[in-house]
Amino acid sequence: MNVQLRSKVSWKLTGLVSAVVVFFISVVVVIIYKDYRDFFYREAASRADARARFVSERLTDDIKDMELYLSFVASHNQAIRKAAEVSNAELAGLSKDENLRRMKDIDMDWAVNGWPRLKDNLLNNNTSDVLRDIQKSKGAILSEIFITNEAGALVAVTNKTSDYFQADEEWWQKGYNNGLGAVYVTPMEWDESSNSYGFSIVCPVVDAEAKVIGVMKFVVDEKILFTDIFEVFFSNEWRAGIMSQTGSSIFTFNVDNEEPKGILKSIFDNAMLKKGHGSRIVRDVDGKYYFLGFSKLKKSFFIVGEDSYVYSLLDAYRVLEVLRKTTTKLSIIWIVTVVFLCLAAFYIAEKVVSPLLIFQNSFGQVNKGIFDRPIAINTGDEFEGMALEFNKMLENLRVSTVSKDYFNQIIQNMSDVLFVVDPQGVINLVNKRACALLGYDEKELKGKEAIQLFSKKDRYIVSWGLKGLIEEGALKNKKVHFLAKSGKEIEVYLGTRLLRDMENSMVGLVCMAADLTDINKLLDDLKRSADEASKHKLELEKALKEQMEARDVMLSILEDTDESKKVLESALRKLKEMQDELLQAEKMISLGQIAAGVAHEINNPLFVISGEAEMLSMEPDSLPSAVESVKIIREQVGRIGEIIKRLLEFSRKKDTKFVPLDINILVDKVVELLKYQAKLLGHIEIDKKISEEKLIVDGDQNQLQEVFLNLMINAVQAMEEKGGILTIRTFSEIINPERSAVVIEISDTGIGMNEDTKKRIFDPFFTTKKTGTGLGLSVCFGIVENHGGSIDVDSRLGVGTTFTVKLPFINKP
């Protein structure tokens, strides 16, 4: 097709399928990714919650266990109990007020004089050793332990305390509980005695009768306690800590032991204010993200009136690294899948669309008038059914339609001039022959007024034709003169025919013309040939008369001698030759006259037959049988024209151009032309025996080439059935001391000829072939004779034939 398609159906189908597939896969991938990400997020948050919960439970359990252990020690250790009892006994001799005053006096001067004076009694005794053993058993978690009696004065310590009198402290009052005793955990505070930040566990000391006889305080180092617990559950990728419900930090745990910047506020906002329903991903002020987990401590240990929470922060970057790797793999799989599916879609689309491409090509061929190429589609679906219907339609078109290109080829390759004019007399179609004859290009003739093609003296006919031919319908065999572009007038036979459309309305006029230039020239040549033949006849008659007179004289002079007999016999032979030549000349004269009449009388009706056949072949509604008949008519008309042409060429005197020629080269060239036909037959050999010396003759190359080619073709055709050997020889021959000849022998091993055939072989129109005009050898005879030579034939039936051509050798003396 000449139309440039913007896009192929296969591309559109591929694009559509690919788009659907890509969209579907993308949706699936996005859903999978979202579900996987959400699962990943939930899993990370769940891990964070679990860690916080484990730490919270562990911390609560450890503090609870510590309370139980320390209360058990305070109430059951005999050394502690005895020390409390001894201290209380020392107070028995004084009143309560006196004891209180004495303890406060010591407390007021505790830092300067009290501690130095009582240091050994409080720090270096058996009870103090017991306290240090208890401290060691807890692995430095207990930074300080001391015992007070029932009045609040120190009994034993592990290190210097900030005060001597403790009864005025809240923790002591909570632990003594008005003599009832109670275990109490203090809020987080700074302990001056141990120089550490932590909380304390207060336990009552009781005697054997469960009477409170003193109070013990165990100061817990929160950093050591919390660190030991947090290190069990959190690795380097975690951040964790304890905070109050108001967002105050109680403890932080991470690699560098620094609280992530601004993270407590995010935890407070998400965990406390939103009651755990906020985002589980939090960010610090530096933009780092963490997965958040938290768990409330079951008991408030650290800040009075506030709940405490354990929080855990999982580094999102490290966690999401796995997600990123998975996402990268998923993206690669997605891309590979999409590419594969697109290629598969393209392949499938090509397979689906391929029948359409076959239909497209077939429609293009039908558009060009080609109806003999059915299509074969074996898909087993609707396309195969369409192909069968298409082939039926193609067969109907082939039977009933002659293509436009076929008509155009007929018009353009016609030997006669053809042009079509519209009702206004303007040319709208012209063939090649018209352009060549008139010297115009096709573009110059199209759109030109037809009247301008005629000479001024014949334009009246055309004027009448343009007005009246439409009414009359045709103008037949009118001799007119065309006017060529160069201004030369060309004589033609003109015929016209009305052109109608499918509705029988007149749409134009078809004009056909035959060039009479060559015919007129042939007629002139025939006339000259006839005149020359008549003149030659008179000369021969005169020579014959002279020979007859010479014969009579010679008979009278040499009647009785042998020599005279020989001379007489020679003269008789020459006389017979001259008689034969005279007879041949008379034949030529008669044939020339016949040829002139035939050319004149046959060419006119032959032109009409040819023109009518051309017009019939262009009828759009012609039956196929009629088209075939018209084709046969045109072929036979062409054959008749060829016979007339050969007859005219035979009878007229040709213009020859004599130049020196090397016969060997000319024969070689003819043999090369004949090789293909011999090779095609397959069983004919060529034996070429060319003379080594140059054989120069004075002759016309084209005419002599025609002679040799004709003789060799006849030889090949004589061996066509059984095969054989074609022998070509060239050599020189001395005829007499003053004359030499170039001899060309062409021999075959064919069927040969009988005597009767040999006598008539050079007669015009005599032939033994099924096809042919019988003029070939006659023409050869005339050409050789015109070159001053001779042609002879020697043949035996069943053996073969040899033609011998002799031409004057111009190089021999």
Strand content: 15-25%
Q: What's the Cα radius of gyration?
A: 68 Å
Number of strands: 23
Counting DSSP H or I runs of 4 or more residues, the number of helices is: 21
Q: What share of the residues lie within helices?
A: 40-55%
End-to-end Cα distance, whole Å, is 73 Å
Rounded mean pLDDT score: 77
Shape: rod-shaped
Overall structural class, as computed from helix and strand content, comes to alpha+beta
Low-confidence stretches: 1-7
The main sheet comes to:
6 strands, antiparallel
Structure in words:
With 813 residues, the protein is an alpha+beta fold. 53% of the residues lie in helices and 20% in strands. The chain contains 21 helices and 23 strands. The strands form five sheets. Strands 1, 2, 3, 4, 5 and 6 form a six-stranded antiparallel sheet that branches. α3 packs across α4. The longest helix is centred in the N-terminal third of the chain and has 68 residues. The radius of gyration is 68 Å and the shape is rod-shaped.
Describe, in short, the structure shown.
By secondary structure, the protein is of the alpha+beta class.
Keyword list:
813 residues; 5-stranded antiparallel sheet; 53% helix; 6-stranded antiparallel sheet; alpha+beta
Structural topology:
Layout: H1 9-76, H2 78-90, H3 96-108, H4 110-123, H5 126-137, E1 142-149, E2 154-157, H6 170-176, E3 184-185, E4 189-191, E5 196-206, E6 212-221, H7 222-233, E7 238-244, E8 249-253, H8 263-273, E9 281-283, E10 289-296, E11 308-315, H9 316-367, H10 382-400, H11 404-412, E12 417-421, E13 427-430, H12 432-438, H13 442-445, H14 459-472, E14 474-483, E15 489-500, E16 506-515, H15 517-557, H16 562-617, H17 624-651, E17 659-662, H18 663-681, E18 684-689, E19 696-699, H19 701-718, E20 724-736, E21 739-748, H20 755-760, H21 776-786, E22 790-796, E23 800-808
Helix pairs in contact: 1-7, 1-9, 3-4, 15-16, 16-17, 18-19, 19-21
